[in-house]
Automatic annotation (TrEMBL):
Alphabetical list of CDD domains matching this protein: cyclophilin (cd00317)
Organism encoding this protein: Oceanicola granulosus (strain ATCC BAA-861 / DSM 15982 / KCTC 12143 / HTCC2516)
Keyword list, A-Z: Isomerase, Rotamase, Signal
Record protein name field: Peptidyl-prolyl cis-trans isomerase
Protein EC: 5.2.1.8
Length: 219
């Protein structure tokens, strides 16, 4: 049963966007809230492009199972290549979902401060050793299952963190880079441990990406 998704409340979205750190950045502190997802929502917001390569994520915690993300090399070639490179180097293995907001999104990918077993109080404020990326905004809508790149209020600050949408959020369209979409395992995404409060911070042990690998399109 889906317990998440749907539109972010318009007033909360406007308030969050007015902050110096916008929605879904590295280390944002916001007060947005969101209602639950439509029960018949399925993965995918129409992220066009040739299929693959795929990011294959083994999730553990309250959620257990495999999530497969189709990386969109046509819409966001630099961002897709970054996620692929970090996965191939094992950088994402053991990284937690540090920010999970019901009805909105689950954020992960902080390879600097978000590793299991570390003090994750700073999770969400770090990135990789690689330089930040220039934005690759597109006309792909942020719908359920779409994967976007987290950033600060600087559009060219995405690095390693990404987020998976539980439901549509039109106010993000054209403001964040869409790097792919979930093609398998949205039921696993739906089960990821929720955070608390408007910012979605996790209390206790967060769910984790135990293993992240890259699968070629032909596999």
């Amino acid at each position: 049963m889906h317990r998440r998704g749907g539109l972010l409340a318009a007033g909360a979205a406007a308030a969050a966007l007015a902050l110096g750190w916008t929605l879904l950045p590295v280390g944002a502190q916001t007060d947005e809230t969101a209602p639950a997802a439509p029960a018949d929502a399925t993965a995918g917001g129409g992220a066009a492009g040739a299929p693959g390569p795929y990011l294959v994520i083994q999730v553990a915690g309250e959620a257990e199972g495999e999530v497969v993300i189709d990386l969109n090399e046509e819409a966001a070639p630099k961002h897709a290549a970054r996620l692929q490179a970090l996965a191939e180097n094992g950088a994402y293995d053991g990284v937690v979902f540090h920010r999970v907001i019901e009805g909105f999104m689950a954020q992960t990918g902080d390879v600097e401060y978000g590793k299991t077993g570390a003090n994750i109080a700073r999770a969400g404020t770090g990135g990789s050793h690689l330089p930040d990326l220039e934005a690759e905004f597109s006309d792909i809508a942020f719908e359920r299952g779409v994967v976007g790149m987290a950033r600060s209020n600087n559009p060219d600050s995405a690095n390693s963190q990404f987020f998976i949408m539980f439901g549509p959020a039109g106010h993000l369209n054209g403001q964040y880079t869409v790097v792919g979409e979930v093609v398998e395992g949205m039921d696993v995404v739906d089960a990821i441990k929720l955070g608390t409060g408007g910012n979605g911070a996790i209390v206790g042990a967060p769910d984790v990406m135990e293993d992240v690998e890259v699968r070629a399109a032909e596999e």
